[in-house]
Design brief:
By secondary structure, this protein is of the alpha+beta class. The chain has 13 helices and 10 strands. The longest helix has 29 residues.
């Protein structure tokens, strides 16, 4: 896995891979079968140094960069993709966004618990009527009342929603201004008025908990608003491309595991008196998998490197927006082809629900629609290409 990396980064990948192989892989079957959440195992990542990867050591983090965070996601996804998705939701969608947009007092108060594992985070953006148009169609409101805001609304498809201790929430503070009347808040999920309206049962990534969240007259302190009132778009856009850059590493990790399983199956499965690995049609599929995985990995690393030092004002526009969309589009499309080859190589075994390759195959659709659908990604790329 690490042959494309300099030694220091290779060590990060190998360290995360070792932890995932030993501690996370054994959890995967139960997580998929029961939609079970390994709460203790997730929180233990704080002590192991795998929470707060991009956070300065003074705040309890590892002091590394986006690239390192991507390598951890890749390794985790290779052995337990559902766990990896929840880790990304906590680490990047919630924690890293708070880190980038909070003031000093907020960082000192809010960040350390997310690094040591005492708190799990989620991002509460999507709504029942607001998916690809998450900002323009947002219906959740936050009305100022003294030192608090009173929040009312629903959030849907929220990864980590059922298990989160805090949520990075977006709500309209001035509905008359549309997308420019949104503010960002850090919400204590134990607050009165916050509830899990429904835990959602999914086709893939089943152990990663997903929910519809309800906010009914929930009071959020003004001190928990990130940035000024009605500046939530800036907060969202500052981290949008970094969030999307975490999807390709998940794709790479899943693809690497699919290839490993396919090679092992092809060498052990015998038909007509010999291993099916001897058949040229099987070899052709394996070769196509290798080409797809190597190219998606290299492009993933290119994207992580390019976005590694992305300034807060550079996200959500221009080259960075196009690059992150391109990377996710290519990775998800490539993974689709890799998994199709893998299931075909496994034959009937690939169609059985409780096999590992079937578990991997059920991941692809989320990766094609999450963090912006394939269609939205293409629009972003084309608009950037044509705008000049």
């Amino acid at each position: 896995m690490s042959r494309f990396l300099p030694e220091e980064r290779a060590q990060i990948l190998e360290s995360a891979d070792r932890l995932a192989r030993e501690r996370l892989a054994p959890l995967a079957p139960r997580m998929d079968e029961e939609e079970w959440w390994p709460d203790e195992a997730f929180r233990a990542l704080g002590k192991a140094g795998f929470l707060g990867v991009t956070v300065p050591p003074a705040l309890g983090g590892a002091g590394l960069d986006l690239f390192a965070s991507g390598l951890v996601a890749q390794a985790f996804a290779r052995w337990n993709h559902a766990f990896a998705l929840s880790w990304v939701a906590h680490e990047n969608l919630c924690l890293n966004n708070i880190l980038r947009n909070a003031n000093d007092e907020q960082r000192e108060r809010l960040v350390p618990p997310l690094c040591d594992g005492s708190q799990i985070g989620c991002l509460a953006l999507t709504e029942p009527g607001a998916g690809s148009d998450a900002l323009g169609s947002m219906a959740t409101t936050a009305v100022r009342d003294g030192d608090d805001y009173v929040v009312n609304g629903r959030k849907l498809y929220i990864t980590n929603g059922p298990v989160a201790d805090v949520a990075l929430l977006y709500a309209k503070t001035d509905p008359s201004r549309g997308a420019h009347g949104i503010s960002a808040f850090v919400v204590d999920m134990a607050s009165p008025g916050v509830s899990v309206a429904k835990k959602l049962v999914k086709m893939g990534f089943r152990g990663s908990q997903t929910a519809e969240l309800a906010f009914d007259d929930c009071r959020v302190p003004v001190a928990n608003r990130l940035g000024g009132e009605n500046t939530g778009v800036a907060c969202l856009m500052s981290g949008l491309d970094l969030e999307r850059a975490m999807i390709p590493p998940i794709c790479v990790g899943i693809a690497e595991r699919a290839l490993e399983l396919s090679v092992a199956h092809a060498q052990s499965r015998k038909q007509f008196g010999e291993p099916i690995a001897n058949f040229q049609m099987i070899q052709s599929r394996l070769a196509d998998m290798v080409v797809a995985i190597d190219t998606m990995r290299v492009y993933d690393y290119h994207c992580l490197e390019a976005l590694n030092d992305l300034g807060r004002e550079e996200g959500g526009r221009g080259w960075a927006h196009s690059l992150s969309a391109t990377s996710v589009l290519y990775a998800a499309d490539s993974l689709n082809r890799v998994l199709d080859h893998a299931v075909q190589i496994h034959g009937g075994a690939g169609y059985i629900w409780d096999t590992e390759i079937n578990r991997l195959y059920r991941t692809i659709k989320l990766l094609e629609i999450g963090a912006g659908t394939t269609e939205v990604r293409k629009l972003i790329i084309a608009r950037e290409l044509l705008k000049g």
